[in-house]
Amino acid sequence: MLKLYNTLTRKKEIFKPIKKNKIGFYQCGPTVYWTQHIGNMRAMTLVDFIIRALKYLDYDVKFVRNYTDVGHLTSDADAGEDKMEKAAKRESLSPSQIAEKYIRIFENDVKDLNTQEPNIKAKATEHIPDIIAMIQILMNKNFAYKTDLALYFDVSKAKDYTKLSRQNLEKQKYGLGSGEIGDPQKKHPSDFALWFFKTGQYKNALQAWKSPWGIGFPGWHIECSAISNKHLGKTFDIHMGGIEHIPIHHTNEIAQSESAHGIKFVNYWLHNEHLLVNNKKMAKSEGASYSLSEIKEKGFGPLALRYLFLQAHYRSKQNFTWKAMQSAQNGFQKLKSQISNLKFTVQNSKLINKKLINKDFKNQFIKKISDDFNFPQALVIVQKILKSDLPNKNKLATILDFDQVLGLKLTTEEKKQIPENVLSLVKQREQARKNKQWRQADEIREKIEKLGYKIEDTKDGVKINL
Questions:
Q1: Residue 462: helix, strand or coil by DSSP?
Q2: FRET label pair with 94: which of 32, 209, 242, 335, CA 20 to 30 Å apart?
Q3: Orientation of helix 438-450 relative to helix 420-434, angle to 10°
Q4: Residue 202 above 90 pLDDT?
């Protein structure tokens, strides 16, 4: 019996899909104007754990994720510059080139983390007709109005507008305001833009399309409603995103979707908490933001980071430190070593099959992942198996069965990443040896060993080992 914590009701509920054993699942994807930091990577990995768990529990999942490549302003509401255009000016590229560049980096990163691809990856710019069609419905039903600068959704006409955020509408104004647009024709500060016209602040917009109301570009919130409607229908099962989306983005998605179609938008809302850095918010401006490439440059494997993400519940904050990362890598390597030993003792790999999976441990595992996806506790069961009296072939078969959810590639050797500073020291030592500066070479060797690496001089060159 699968139970999910539904943000809409603020309680765990027994999951009941719209169609038997089928799930429509939508995740708010990245705005592709920059390299995504590991906080965003955690969100993608958490969704991957959940999608894998749902499939493990025999659900047929249709997974849709969007790419925001237009309309997301530097404020999450209706103020500031379009992030894509800002990036385009920063790098002297077109917005489409920016999108292509950062989508490629993003997809390489999530692949390194062994996340499964969505069934549909939807760019906002490829859904402009769908966006316009939904706006037209809202205009026809009098839920939206036009000013000289934009089309706005009238929140006063939405039924129970703050039912997801549970905020007082007066407080909801914070961060939503008419701000930099300064539109005197806007009826309420909380009204949000569906379509910006190519005029005023946006008269030189690099991305714009024809619409029945004038040339312009969509607001941020409407894209997710239009994309999910096209690919999952007017009502679908699960919508997931970060907690930062609750008060504005997801609140607005519900308002415009339910106003347009007159029925419930999403049955279960899941929200993941943030990844902190040294107990502070991850932010580029504060120098507390790391990309996956920076993690790899320090010598840590992407799957070790995945292993770290497994250790905190998706609804809990997780604190990233380099010490925690090292601990995760050590723990992951130990687990891989234990699995390797099991493989070594199981002579006939053909014996590793479903008949060997231990039912008691499997039931414990299912119980944990079915309780609002408690992956940290599910991971504990793996350690219980390793310490149990089960025959090795049963241990191996059971753990590898669980790895369908964990996604740790436990039988695959992960390429070790040697940090740049270690490689630099090795080069310095080689040069010292060539210059017959033996004392200096020994001192450099000691520095390398203090960093946790050992070097071995062979006839084929220097080997670096953990």
A1: strand
A2: 242
A3: 160
A4: yes
